[in-house]
Amino acid sequence: MQILKSIFRILCSQLLKICILFVAVSTAIVVVLGTSSRLKSDIKASGIYDKAVNGIIDQVKKDQNKNQNPDSKKADISLDDPGMRDAIKKALPASFLENSANGVIDGVFGWLKGTTPQPIFTIDLTETKKQLAVGVGEVAYQKALALPICTRSQLRTLNLNNVDVNNLPCLPPGIDLQAERDKYVATVSSSKDFLPDTKITNENLPKKDDKTVFDQANKVPTAYQLLVKLPYILSVLGLLAGVGVVFLHDERRRGLWVVSRTVFVVGLVLLVGILVSNYIINNSNIIKHGNGSDLEQTAQALGRLLVGDFNHVLLLFGIPYIALGAGGMLAIRLTRPKTITHDKNEKVHETITQPVLDKPSISSESIKHPDSKEDIKSPIKK
């Protein structure tokens, strides 16, 4: 029986450690990543919306170089041109990107919470593409105005019936640049090489084996909903484990000491983890001095913000854990019962009070020497 009791005591002690540690960790995850408001705030604070356009331009450029049709020259947009980049930035302001991202985040969290079977969101790029076409058309127009007048030899090489205002080597005399600009704007607007999908929804996402990424991750909402409940579940289990540790010890004070010490140690572990992660973030050259693209650098900034929020929540658990554990151990130490020590030469006398009885009274006069011939009188007085 004693062996079985020791086994359960050890199991409760280990369960207590796991529960109080992961109550803090799971709560931090739920607070940082489990709510759309905190995630939106961190994404915006990272500055990703201000720098995302440069990343989008770089990605579009890569896609154009990879998928460009050699026969399609009219829709060719030189993304290396600073004027083109400015036009794209005007067409994709940070406010538009933020609103679009917030819509996607809300849709994903609705799916995670089980409100909708699929994340419902829509990113409408129709107006963006029109503004982009007008912007790049104006850039091409201004560039053509600055060209020198074509010579006769240059005119022989040009097809004036099919002019690409963005790629003119010189300015043909008598050309209507505004009309050519409008043609170029129409070409860009109808181009399939640039922003082919003007509306992005959950229904037209890329599919693999006829399934979107959300279809393949159909277990994620269940895991998310369990994660939200996990801090409460672990709190109850930890409380039960702590009670078990106390009552499975032969001495309750010893059980309380073990519980207090466990809480104190877990608090120290959390603080050490916070210090180590902060040191890595602040001293890693890759994280601190990102040399990648704008999107990579903003992603690193977002990672630092998320880790900072995560550590802040852990700190709200670590300090109370340490205070509670240290306070419990100190209280147990100060209130322990005092032990009585006896000196070797000290004698302990016990006074026993008994009822007074009639005892025989013996007087010295009644006792004679054994050699005396006198009779010994009875010592009992009647």
Q: How much strand content do the residues show?
A: under 5%
**Helix tally?**
13
The helicity comes to 55-70%
Low-confidence stretches: 70-75, 343-370, 376-382
Order of helices and strands: HHHHHEHHHEHHHHH
Structural class by secondary-structure content: mainly alpha
Can you tell me the overall shape?
A: elongated
Describe the biggest sheet?
2 strands, antiparallel
Strand order, sheet with most strands:
1-2
Average pLDDT rating = 81
Kindly provide the radius of gyration, computed on alpha-carbon positions and rounded to a whole number of angstroms. Answer: 43 Å
Q: Count all strands and give the number.
A: 2
> What separation lies between the terminal Cα atoms?
67 Å
